[in-house]
Amino acid sequence: MSLTLVAPQTEAPAPALAPREQEALRHIAAGCTYLQTARNMGLSKHTVDAYLRRIRAKLGANTTAELTRLAISLGM
């Protein structure tokens, strides 16, 4: 039996986020709640929720912690 070394897989480039999605992600990654993010952006919390659902789908994230990690890795 032989072992083969395989290079670790790098993450694929993230799909493009719309400017308002990027702004919402920055707020959430900075520790703001949905309501705080909505107030800062002049939106309803439901709109922020919709943005974050789209971001999760695009980036394949399931939790806020994953979103924060991805935001940091994207330099946000």
SSE layout and pairings?
Layout: H1 19-29, H2 34-41, H3 45-59, H4 64-73
Compact description:
With 76 residues, the protein is mainly alpha-helical.
Tags for this model:
4 helices; mainly alpha; 76 residues
Structure explained in plain terms:
This protein has 76 residues and is mainly alpha-helical. Helices cover 58% and strands 0% of the residues. The protein is built from four helices and no strands. Helix 1 (19-29) packs across helix 4 (64-73).
Number of helices: 4
- Overall body shape: elongated
Helical/strand content category:
mainly alpha
What proportion strand? under 5%
